[in-house]
Amino acid sequence: NAGVTQTPKFQVLKTGQSMTLQCAQDMNHNSMYWYRQDPGMGLRLIYYSASEGTTDKGEVPNGYNVSRLNKREFSLRLESAAPSQTSVYFCASVRDRGLGELFFGEGSRLTVL
Amino acid sequence: DAKTTQPPSMDCAEGRAANLPCNHSTISGNEYVYWYRQIHSQGPQYIIHGLKNNETNEMASLIITEDRKSSTLILPHATLRDTAVYYCIVRVVSSGGYQKVTFGTGTKLQVIP
Fold first, then answer.
1. Which residues are registered as beta bridge partners of B88?
2. At B7, which helix (H) or strand (E)?
3. What's the gap in Å between the CA of B77 and the closest CA on chain A?
4. Rounded to whole angstroms, how far apart are CA atoms B113 and B103?
5. Distances (CA, A) of B27 to A82, B36, B73
6. More confident position, A68 or B99
């Protein structure tokens, strides 16, 4: 039982390059989230998906796009990476709109040069 | 979602109880209090949650004041492995189905030998 799996774990990009962070959960959860965490700071919500087929902006959505491919997978795309997007990205899922704990992946560490 | 306020940092002697406060004075009746912690730069880990009654599990105890405007997470016998950033968040349970979950900056707990 893998829980929440993120790929890649590490990535270095040059300014202007694009890439997609992948997230998959095997717990049959309905809601999924993407957060970023900058050094010494808390988690900031980028986008979330309450259920398959729906996505909504969080606190810091600029520069990102997301796709809820199916119930299991929620990807985060950087179309034109900028140094300000250097961060650790966490994907999380929760069972449903009701109660339930958030399960987090181990993080994807992205550096934009 | 209600906003939470936590002290930025706290120290605790190893073996003693660690009491981490959280203020959520604008909490509404359908919001639960959740606690997570983040060790180093791993993904956050769920600890405990509650609505209005005190709660206890194998990791910690949660004390919520009668007016629900504040709560305290208690780690009864802190160990060095409890050194982490602790996040207090409140989550609404809404009929609309959305669960936008936001985190603050948390409390950095340092357990001292």
1. B35
2. none
3. 24
4. 29
5. 37, 18, 17
6. A68
Say if residue A99 is exposed, middle or buried (CB neighbours under 10 Å; 0-12, 13-18, 19+): middle
Q: Is A60 on the interface with B (CB under 8 A)?
A: no
- Judged by a CB distance cut-off of 8 A, whether residue B46 touches chain A is yes
Return the minimum-mean-pLDDT range out of A3-7, B24-28, B46-50: B24-28
pLDDT for residue A94: 87
Q: Taking CB atoms and an 8 Å limit, are A48 and B44 in contact across chains?
A: no
Question: Cα–Cα distance between A76 and A65 in angstroms, integer?
Answer: 6
Question: Token pair 């609505």 is at which residue?
Answer: B51
CB–CB of B86/B104 below 8 Å? no
Comparing CA positions, the residue from B37, B42, B44, B43 lying closest to residue B18 is B37
Pure H helices in B4-107 = none
Contact between B54 and B62 under an 8 Å Cβ cutoff? The reply is: yes
Q: Which residue is it, tokens 């930025």?
A: B8
Locate B72 and state its tokens: 């305290």
Task: Name beta bridge partners: B4.
Answer: none
Instruction: Read off the pLDDT band of B99 (50, 70, 90).
Output: low
Residue of B nearest to A107 (CA): B43
Q: How far apart are CA B31 and CA A69, in angstroms?
A: 30
Grouping H, G, I as helix, E, B as strand and the rest as coil, residue A74 is: strand
